[in-house]
Amino acid sequence: MPAYGGVRRSRQSGQRSVKIDDFAGGSAGSAAINFDRNTTSRKGRDNTMIEDQEALDLAADWADISQGLKKDLGPQLHAQWIKPIQLGAFCKETGTLDLFLPTEFSANWVADRFADRLSLAWKIARSEVRQVRITVHPRRRSMPELRVGAEAPVPVRAPATPAMIDTALSGLDPSLTFAEFVSGSANVLAVNAAQRMAAVETPQFSPLYLKGSTGQGKTHLLHAIGHAFAANKPGARIFYCSAERFMIEFVQAMRSNEMIEFKARLRGFDMLLVDDIQFIIGKASTQEEFLHTIDALMSAGKRLVVAADRAPQALDGVEQRLLSRLSMGLVADIQPADIELRRKILEHRLNRFGNTQVPADVIEFLARTINRNVRELVGGLNKLIAYAQLTGQPVSLQLAEEQLTDILSANRRRITIDEIQRTVCQFYRVDRTEMASKRRARAVVRPRQVAMYLAKVLTPRSYPEIGRKFGGRDHSTVIHAVRLIEELRTRDADMDGDVRTLLRQLED
Q1: Beta strands across the sheet bearing 96-101
Q2: pLDDT-based confidence at residue 221 (cuts at 50, 70, 90)
């Protein structure tokens, strides 16, 4: 493992128990591997010893990977998300390795943000690992109760400072704050509304309805509102949940005859944040209870923020009364991030990676080609940097194209080389036939090289394929053109401006 160093394995004769504390936090996260060789039958002793050794090797690999991630992510992120991971079973037949987390929220969070990094690290450590599954520990799948202050027992803990929010009870992700949210023209209305909702003063609108397609930042804003409100109003009781969790809690309360307690707990919060509200549709009893919850919170001056992937009017199967309540406040639309915002997001995220160098042309390439949603954009950057760090390779345009094939292909509009040649010729006022000609006049060569560069950036074609579209030129000629334009863009403002203009024309 180039980036994480050699795998450390302790092989003490007769060792019966191994506990890796480097990546385990408390009883929920420790990877304990225990063997009792005294009770092992002689017939199965050899198989047991093999299994024991395999378990030891697996634990040692995980300890090494965990330490590498600690260096990359920093001690705070590592302690919060990587350390609680518990090593599960490895199936040789399928090449599947299970990693367990104590809660559904943490499992989903780690899967969304670190799945590629963890998978890549394991594949480098063990070639036989083909898939890494991140899931909730089988013994911890039960849904925790909604809790409000002293109304439910909580573990004994050191008292928090007044402004601290109890993330274990509120469901908030400590990393999703306003400071980490990058704003731009696409989301400025939603950001301003979110900050108003979190302010000390009572907002002029309530509820706040955040509307946006998948991966545009709705969930981030919900968490940011909760954190800011907790800081502005010490002691405030805040709860974040998905619509799915609301329904699960509701059904459990009905089955256990605890509806009175459920209602009291839920309506005792000062702020309720509900994500993916579209999933509450079509269930009459749940809608009715949610409607009563909204009315109770609003009449008590409490705050409610919901998020969905569509406008209230587009929620099929929603009772008219609930639709009216959801629409009575402010509906803030989060538009897909434009090119400028995507650049800002990538540059902001780079601050998390310390000294990792990412060339400007790579940032530009990612910002232009990964345009469906912010989640894919950030995921692409994370995957690229993780691969570069783990393999010791520098981040480059070529590496991005090789390692992000799946993301890029899903985002690219099918721009053709013919379209690129036509656009470049119009821009430079060059006859289209010059793209395939043998002329070497500067007025012809430079536009041809720009067209080759754009063909590589905007299409999935290989160097030989591009060469054939430019009069049957050799792939080395295309490589030279791509590298030359990349280099010129870094020192020639006019060339960089030309390329940016052409990119806008081709992608609009």
Answers
A1: 86-91, 96-101, 131-136
A2: very high
